[in-house]
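Let us work through a complete example step by step.
Step 1: write down the sequence.
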Amino acid sequence: MIAAAAENNALGKDNDLVWHLPDDFKRFKELTSGHSIIMGRKTFESFPKLLPNRTHIIITRQKNYQPESCIVVNSIEKALEFIEEDEDAFIIGGGEIYKQSLPFTDVIELTRVHDSFEADTYFPELNQEEWQLVDEEYHPKDEKHAVDFTYQTYIRK
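Step 2: predict the structure and record it as tokens.
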């Protein structure tokens, strides 16, 4: 799972992010390139085009939804059937997909944005009994980044 969430777990509003963090976009690209990315329909539709060098697996309840060059399924379980046993796949959102896929996740790459935002989509609350923070890297705000943020890696205990 890979996500960027604010201190209040805000992910986005009106199918868009509520912050602009170029270094986080670069990290997302580095981590997900060459892998499958699993997402909900609205997350997919928020992209201007297909993300290069990734297999797009879209979860939707809509019948006959079939964007070009994508795999379309109706559940997280069906999405996981398309993942090779030794492949790293990334669940990339949105909020409901994160919530549904948490039981199937063993690593979370989270960019914690150090502010709170008004949103209509939220990242699920992580149960500290189940998740262990194993790495973090703080980035202060600068001319390209309006807010401080920290890359955090969690693994299932």
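Step 3: interpret the result. The longest strand covers residues 131-139.
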